[in-house]
Amino acid sequence: MSPRPRLDHVRRPAILAAAADVIRERGLENARIADVAERARTSPPSVLYYFSSKAELLKEALTSAEEQFYVEMEVELAELESACDRLIRIIDWSCNAEDYDAALWMELWPRALRDPELADTRAELDTRWRTAIADVVRYGQERGEFGAADADEFAVLLAALLDGLAVQIALRDTEVTPERVREMCLRLAERELGCELLVASHG
Amino acid sequence: MSPRPRLDHVRRPAILAAAADVIRERGLENARIADVAERARTSPPSVLYYFSSKAELLKEALTSAEEQFYVEMEVELAELESACDRLIRIIDWSCNAEDYDAALWMELWPRALRDPELADTRAELDTRWRTAIADVVRYGQERGEFGAADADEFAVLLAALLDGLAVQIALRDTEVTPERVREMCLRLAERELGCELLVASHG
DNA sequence: AGGTTTCTTGAACCGCCGTTCAGGTTTGGC
DNA sequence: GCCAAACCTGAACGGCGGTTCAAGAAACCT
Q1: Could you tell me which residues come within 8 angstroms of residue A127 by beta carbon, excluding any fewer than 6 positions away?
Q2: CB contact under 8 A, B188 and A113
Q3: From the CA of A115, how many Å to the C1' of D26?
Q4: pTM of this prediction?
Q5: Residue B184's closest CA among A105, A52, A135, B166?
Q6: Using CA atoms, how far apart are residues B97 and B171, in angstroms rounded to an integer?
Q7: What are the two backbone dihedrals, phi and then psi, of residue B53, each rounded to the nearest 5 degrees?
Q8: Nearest nucleotide relative to A47: CA against C1'
Q9: CA gap A169, A160 in Å, rounded
Q10: CA neighbours within 13 Å on the CB side: how many for B67?
């Protein structure tokens, strides 16, 4: 009279992770259910047992991967005492093509243009991203590390700049290297927030 | 003994324009040959008469649209005397979602990740974009409009920033409006180049 | 008019997946 | 051991859409 226990909580995340891998590797438009199944060591019908359609699967894979990223970021940031360190950490993340999944963002953007649901999650994630930056700025101002500046304005600026630069890095632009980006962003933050970052970071 | 004259020079551009429209409207992954044919008022086989495959057609549509944009930009910029006006024009372009085809860029980026040919054109176009900015900066410095600054560094910074912001604008982010972006970028340029732009522009 | 080349297109072809189905296997409880 | 529910999967289905074909129409020349 008692059923077999559900496996959702194990299988779904595993399949989502596999899907994210496939998207990174082959791109969203070339991602096939068969690829995801193979990487998750199962069969296509099994994948569809947990996700009602390919579209749903890929959408959720995209958004959940991004969400995980922010959760990790928020945790790690909270562990750093100094606001300067936090800001440096944010910048370092974006410069590291692997950590900051620019590839996934690049797939998400054009779809968000047409899928209202994706558009909403995108907006939400971006707000989280900017809020994280703005919070660091305010935190630094409270601690006297940063001078006066509009935290929200700075957040929009830095978030967009990091996005743009991360794209170039992901595309392996010869003129936009991670090191150069790092230095550029740190310098910009110094000027805007009136603090010392290049020294603190390691130079 | 004499053949019918070729129509390539007329049909190809027309089809490419139709393809760019379809991409903007439906996205690259949903663009069908039938859509392009319809918009170009012809038939699918006819499209394939001028382009050897769908992949080739879409690739060329993407890159040629971007290229046209830069040609127009360079012409228009050259017509402006003042370096400040030129810089303002560049920023205004990026804020205008229609002129600066962020939608096409967003489609181009993830593909450039996997298609070496697209990657090359992308790199070339971005170089052109940055060079245009750097040239304006140097021009302004010669004319005494701008203070000392590393023109190439500034170009990388502004180009990436405008890319990132243009994405947000294209996605109709409620916090990143064209007006706000315009002001933010002008202010940044003022600080970095030591000049007055907000006054000159219209405020 | 006739000949040559270019262009056009309706119809058919074909491969590739997403999806469904039908039957099986596992798991846990009585 | 038997039942019920959850899971799995090989095989088949079906549609969409890129591509090809073959036959014709249009343009230009002599």
Answers
A1: B175
A2: no
A3: 45
A4: 0.95
A5: B166
A6: 9
A7: -165, 165
A8: D8
A9: 14
A10: 14
User: In whole angstroms, what is the distance from residue B127 CA to residue A110 CA?
Assistant: 23
Inter-chain CB pairs, A–B, below 8 Å: 107
Structure tokens at A61: 């894979």
Structure tokens at B62: 């993407």
Any idea what DSSP says for residue A6? P
Would you write out chain A's pLDDT as a tens digit for each of its 203 residues?
577 899 999 999 999 999 999 999 999 999 999 999 999 999 999 999 999 999 999 999 999 999 999 999 999 999 999 999 999 999 999 998 777 799 999 999 999 999 999 999 999 999 999 999 999 999 999 999 999 999 999 999 999 999 999 999 999 999 999 999 999 999 999 999 999 998 766 64
Instruction: For chain A, give percent helix, strand, coil, nearest 5.
Output: 75, 0, 25
Name, in order, each residue with C-beta under 8 angstroms of B7's C-beta and a sequence gap of 6 or more: none
What positions of strand D are covered by protein, i.e. any atom < 7 Å from a CB? 3-11, 17-22, 26-30
Give the number of other Cβ atoms within 10 Å of residue B94's Cβ: 23
Interface contact flag, A110 B106, Cβ < 8 Å: yes
How far in angstroms lies nucleotide C9's C1' from the CA of residue B45?
7
| The nucleotide closest to B56 (CA, C1' atoms) | D18
Q: What angle do CA B122, A89, B181 make, to 5 degrees?
A: 50
For B180, nearest residue in chain A (alpha carbons): A153
